[in-house]
Each structure stands twice: as C-alpha cells, then as structure tokens.
Amino acid sequence: MATLLYRLGRTAFRRRWLVTLLWVAIVGGAGAGAVMAPAASDDTTSFMPGIEAQKAFDLIGERFPGSSADGATAQIVFIAPDGGKVTAADEREAITTLVEKAADEPRVSGAVDPFTAGAVSKDGSTAYATVDFEVAASELTDDDRAALERAIDEARATGLTVEAGGSALTVQPAAGGSSEVIGIALAAVVLLITFGSLAAAGLPLLTAVVGVGVSMAAIMALGSTLGLSMTSGTLASMLGLAVGIDYALFVVSRYREERAAGRDPHEAVGIAVGTAGSAVVFAGLTVVIALAGLSVIGVPMLTKMGLCAAGAVVVAVLIALTLVPALLGMWPDAVLSRRNRKGNRRRGLAADGRAAGGHAAVGHAASATENGGSRWARFVLRRPVTVLVLCVAGLGVLALPATELEMGMPGAESKSTASTERRAYDALAEGFGAGFNGLLTVVADVADVKDPADARQAVKEIAEKIGSTDGVVSVSSPRFNEAGDAALFSAVPSTGPNDEKTKDLVQNIRAERAGLESTTGATFEVTGSTAMNIDVAQALQDALLPYLAVIVGLALLLLLVVFRSLLVPVKAAFGFLLSVLASLGAVVAVFQWGWGADLLGVEQPGPIMSLMPIFLVGIVFGLAMDYEVFLVARMREAYVHGDRAPQAVVTGFRHSARVVAAAAAIMIAVFSGFVGAEESMIKTIGFGLAVAVLFDAFVVRMAFVPAVLALLGDKAWWIPRRLDRMLPHVDVEGSGLGTRTVDGGGSVAGESPAPRRPARI
C-alpha cells in the first residue's frame, strides 16, 4: 500500500498540470450536469417499507387514487379578534373569499371551506381551511406560493389573525450558505495557527472546497434520477468539507515534516502520500463503511443520505492522494515555514535528492526534540490508571442522559414562535386540542366482505370501537372509495403527537384489530404522520444493534489488517462506544431536556428526531476510527522501526498529536457551523458531531488510548502467528519505504536492514 501510494504521489507531483487539469475537467463536468439536470423532488411515497404505517399509506394510495400525500398541502388557520368569533358575518365572508381565491389557482386541486367541513372550534374562536395542490411541495414555484400568500394578506387586512402551516408554504433550506462559510472561516484560523503559513493553511481549504463542489454538483446532477433531497446534500457537504480539510492537512503536514528533514520535494511528496496517504485511505474506508452501512437499516432516505456522504468522503480521499501532491508540485516551498525555507536555501539541497546522506528511515525523518505532544504522552504514561479511570468515569457521567432518550419527529412545534408555522400549530392546539396536530388516519380494508351493507356495517363497528378507546377524543365519518372495498376516517387523540400517551394509544388501537377482524371480517391499519413517526422510531431502535454489529465487525477486520494486532482494534471500538454515548447524552441534555437550549437557538426542546441517533452513531464511528488510524498508525510506525512500546507512544504523539488536535478542532469548527441551520435534523447532527469529535479526539484518543497502550505494553501489538500469516500485508506504516534508498532520479535503488516485526507473544 505505502509503495503504491508513494509512486502515486510522485506521479501526481511530476504530472501536476495534467492532474490539475483533470480535476478542473471533473469540476466542470459535474457543474454542467448539475445545471442541466431537472430539479430534484423529494420522494415521500416510501419512507420505510415494512412498517404498518407505510403499508397503510401505500394502501391508501392504491385504493384512493389522488389521496396520497404526494401533493403539497397548506393549512390556513383563522383566529378571530379577542372576544369575537370566526362565524361573525365579516369574518365569515373574509374566510370564504380566501378559500374561493385559493381554489381558483391553476395548480390547486381543492380548497375546503371550514364552515362546510365543520372545521370550526367549539367556542367559535378558531377555524382552519385545507388547500391541496396537484404537485409536490418541491415542484411549487414562487408564483404558486405568492398567490396564496396574497390571499392570506387580504384576509389579515380585515382584522383576522391568519397563520399558515403545511408543506406548501415551507421553504426547503438550500444546501450551502452560512453554515459552510462559518465552518471554513473557523477552519482557516485553526490551520493558520497550526502551520503559521498562509499557503499551508490555504491548500487544505482549497482542495476541500473543490471536493465539496464536485460532490454537491454530482448530487444535484443525479438528484432527480435518484430522488436525492437537499438534506442528503447538506450532510454530504458537512462531512465532505470536514474530512476533506483533515485528509489534506495530514498529507501537507507530513510533507512539511519530510522537507524539514532535508528531503527534496519529489521524495517528500512520495513519502507523505505513502505514509500519511495510507492512513487517509484506511481512515476514509472506515467512514465509508459506517455510512454505507446505513443501508442495512431499510430506510430509503437514510440510505440515500449515507451513500451521498460516503461518496463525498471518497472524493475527499482521491483529492488528498492526487490533487494535493499536484498542487504541492506547483509551489513546493510555499507551504513550508519561513524558517524551513531559509534552512533549505542554506543547505543548498542537491537536485538529485541526496540530502542528509541520501537516505533516512521513514518515521525518523523529523527531529526527536520534545514538544507538547510528547510531554503529554509522558505524563499519561506515568499515570495510566488515573487517566484511564478519569476518562471512563467522566464520559460515563456525560452518557447518563442517553438512558432517557426519546425519539420522535419534531415538526412545527420545534420552530421559532416568530414563524407562521409555529403560530398555526399553537392556534390549532389551543382551539381544537393538543391531539389535533397528531391526527391518526385509519384505513379499513373490507375487500373480503362481499355484501356492501355488511362492509359499511363493519366499518361503522371499527370506527365506533376506535372512538371508544381511552385517549381518543373523536373520530370522523368514514369515507368509502369508489369501489367500496376501503374506507378512510380520522381519530383525534387527546394528547400531542410526541406524547408517550399517544404512542400507547396507537398500540392499543392496533391491539383491538384481531378481535374486530374476527367479528366483522374486515381489518384496518393506522397511519398518518404521528403513527409513521412512532413506527419509524421503533424500527430504528430495533435496527440499531444489527447496524452496530455490521459496521463494528467490518471496521474491526479492517483495523486488524492495518495494525496487525488483536487488542488495538478492540480498544478502538470501546473508545468509540464511550464517545458516542457521551455525545448522545449531550444531545439529550440540550435538545430534549433543554439545558442551554436558548444558547443554540433551540426553540422547543422535545424528542430527538428518530433518524438522528442512528445516523450520529454511524458518522461518529467513522470519524472515531479516523483519529485512531492517524494517531496509532504513527505509533506502530515507530514501534516497527525499533522503538520500545512506551517510546513508540511518545514518538507517535510527538509527530501526530499537534496535527490530530488541529484536525479535530477543524471538524468541530465545521460541524459547529451547522448548529445555526434552520432544519432541526441538521442542527441536531451538527451539535452531536461537534461534541462527539471533542470527546473522541481530546478525551478518548489523546488520553484513553495512550493510557491503555501504556498498560498493555508490547502486548498491544500481539497477534497470533497463524492469523498474521493469513492477513494480507498492506504496509500502512511505510516500512517498505523506510528500508530503501533513493538515487538521484528518485527511483528505488537499494535496501537497508529490515525493520523489527511486531511482537508475537
């Protein structure tokens, strides 16, 4: 692996213009595809196949053509002035006028007058009208929305308070924007502090932006074909930007290290890509495994988000291995510190690259002087038990709130009170009860009941039984389809959509199905957004352990190959569990319990979005393995080249701690930028990833890992002989490069004594 990447890096350096032009062509091609592709429309017809709510949703679409949730809807809520009623003549006229104007719009399929539909509260203070569109919300134009908004403004001019909810007037957040800008700005500051050079700081930013540009353009180009949403693109840009900066950072940092040791630019690039690039490849693979593993959950939306983000990571890896060395070839000295540039000029490096005697072992190219990383490692090595106990206890305490995790699907209630959607939600809850915002849709299937009269009687019995269930306020009159083999009606719970009592109610209603089916010959299923959220949350909870087994198993196998050790991968997995549980605990404390919620702009604490925990687990696992590979690979490199086990830990920290800390700070900065996003899931994931990286990089990898390695000693690198012979040798630590010399043309010329083999005890 190291030798292959060594040659790739030198080739990219030598053919720098060709490689750069190739990437320019890729950017141009992806951009052209994005411009010419039709706009993507979110596919909501099959959220999670297999769950009851989805089956019922599909049945409605089959038996009631045109009644599925494909079309956008707007729910217009009218509130009378204080002390007044919406049934007063002037208010009634204003409401009727709005409904008529809305119904006349060309893309509106229907608008229901609240006075004919019985959509008026008992006290007469509130009413609502539903406006249905022929097309999905993503296909509505600004003109479509503007026409409805003008009608609303005219109704408001009469003195009515008018608010609007539903999907039709909700503007989807665009990918890109302030979140990325904030993240890039913070990352630039960290890079500048780390490198002390504008060029060295700018190169990772430039290549990361190129990678994100390619990924986002590809997602936009394929969006309409594959049904990719803006949420998928935002998450891909978030991860692509973070890992793109970090992967380039590691290559540039190793290049600077090799140049400081006296190597010429060609050789320095080759070694940087061969060693740091090997770590990038395997770190990227762990992230891709975690993201692609989301497909085993069975949620199409989650699968698409995971694969889009995995594609962005692959692009970031390819750029780090090719475009970064190509750009280094154009400005080989620009990324060096001023001191190293002066030092190179004083030494007058020979053009044949025979600096410092012509060869040096990889892993010992840099100075062995003490720095903050090595001093910290020695501190941990002196007190491994104390550090280990503090890490486990501290993260364990932070993880405690995760035991109270409640999953749901936050809706309009989580938006700002300044938004019309939130005000409409509150007005409906006040006028019609908390459960009105969580209506349950029941579809009765009477296809097996041959007599139409018996079918209607069966549906009547089902509706009456559900209506008498504790927790149900009322049920609507059943509506049959044209064929007479199915009926629809709604049940209004007494509690809100995210209340635990509503979840129990759905289960109780379903428990009555068997008895009703035996007496009526008909069956029914419960759906609607509330039931869908309940079913999804339960399905994701059931899928969590299989998902963890898949990604942890594959990643452990990968790390076994990388480190040729049994205990190092196990230690890495245990550290991941600590960091991910602590991050979930922090998410629950802020977004569910409301601790510090005002500081992050969380309007209404409540259940955590059901997709978020499992997505967070996948991403955090990938990133945790990133830092494990970057940090521990350098330790193993030192161990293989002769350092004793404790000294290998110190050497690894001397070379990598500063860069790993900078990489983690960059990821925290990028993810923190997304905390300001309007979309609830993006905000929550941004916060969760930021704290997860904080815990994993600075507590687990910087303290827990060296403490465990100090206690294990040489046993950390133990592997059974038979297993060692079975595993492929990939040479991630660059031992093959460290045993060779380079002639004047840069080709392999000879060998020095082989490095020490890892311990087998």
- Rg estimate, integer Å: 31 Å
Number of strands: 13
**Helix count?**
26
User: Helix proportion of residues, in percent?
Assistant: 55-70%
The termini sit apart by 26 Å
Mean pLDDT comes to 83
Backbone structural class: alpha+beta
Question: Sheet with the most strands?
Answer: 5 strands, antiparallel
Choose one word for the global shape: elongated
Indicate the low-confidence ranges by residue numbers: 349-367, 739-755, 757-761
Strand content: 5-15%
Write the layout of secondary structure elements.
Layout: H1 2-14, H2 16-36, H3 52-63, E1 73-79, H4 89-103, E2 108-112, H5 114-117, E3 126-133, H6 142-156, E4 161-165, H7 178-195, H8 198-226, H9 230-260, H10 265-292, H11 300-321, H12 323-330, H13 338-347, H14 372-382, H15 384-399, E5 407-408, H16 420-432, E6 440-445, H17 452-467, E7 472-475, E8 479-480, E9 486-493, H18 500-511, H19 513-520, E10 523-527, H20 529-563, H21 567-592, E11 608-609, H22 611-640, H23 645-673, H24 680-712, H25 721-726, H26 735-738, E12 740-742, E13 748-751
